[in-house]
Amino acid sequence: MVTPTVRDADGPDLPAITALYAGEVVGGTATFETTAPPLDEMTGRLTAVRNHGLPWLVAEVDGRFAGYAYASPFRPRPAYRYGVEVSVYVEAAARGQGVGRALLLALVERIRAMGLRHLIAAVSDSDTSAASIALHRSLGFRDSGTYRQVGWKFGRWLDVALLQLDLDPAGAPPASPGLDLDSGRA
């Protein structure tokens, strides 16, 4: 297993991020998009995440891009301001080497430091998603449910497994104001 370096994403990472995501769009089920977004769209997505004060991270192995992860607001309504949805994408050549784990661990710690409460992962439940589901479970995410046959891609219906990590299962009142979902700032 390798030791990836995890850091904040920046502009020079966007071509690699865009290429990795495009590969999943056209050849995988990690996303339900069917047309790969161009670089300017991915730049806008990174900006939107950052405008909420949320992290977008990249992992490198031996100085080479190996994957990325980010958190986005779980839902737009104000009562959801303590929850985020997490997304993790790892280059095929780097899978099974601890890159996804390093990214997700770093993401969890960033969210915890922000005083947020819930991390939700929505993982397509297909024959290629077992490793992602196992990774989330190994870090304490619990199964929260399944959306059955909600995505149609590659000529078949796909389920979405929902997993949740509660950073304060005791249910204490929030210590932070949460995300500002009206203005896009945390």
Give a quick precis of the structure:
The chain contains 4 helices and 7 strands, in the order E-H-H-E-E-E-H-E-H-E-E.
Features:
single chain, 186 residues, alpha+beta, Aminopeptidase, 7-stranded mixed sheet, 32% strand
Your description of this structure?
The relative contact order is 0.17. The protein is α+β, with helices and mostly antiparallel strands. The chain is 27% helix and 32% strand. The longest helix has 15 residues, at 99-113. The protein has a single domain, classed as Aminopeptidase (3-Layer(aba) Sandwich), CATH 3.40.630. It has helices at 14-27, 39-51, 99-113, 130-138; strands at 5-8, 56-61, 64-73, 83-90, 118-125, 142-153, 156-166. β2 (56-61) and β3 (64-73) form a beta hairpin. It has a seven-stranded mixed sheet with strand order 1-2-3-4-5-7-6, sandwiched between helices. The protein is globular.
Measured between the Cα atoms of the first and last residue, the distance is 35 Å
Overall mean pLDDT: 94
Alpha plus pi helix count: 4
Q: Largest sheet, order of strands side by side?
A: 1-2-3-4-5-7-6
Radius of gyration: 16 Å
Structural class: alpha+beta
CATH architecture: 3-Layer(aba) Sandwich
The CATH homology group name:
Gcn5-related N-acetyltransferase (GNAT)
Largest sheet: 7 strands, mixed
Assign the CATH topology.
Aminopeptidase
Helix and strand run: EHHEEEHEHEE
Content of β-strand: 25-35%
Shape: globular
**Helix amount, in percent?**
25-40%
pLDDT < 50 runs, ≥5 residues: none
- How many discrete domains? 1
Overall strand count: 7
Text of the CATH class: Alpha Beta
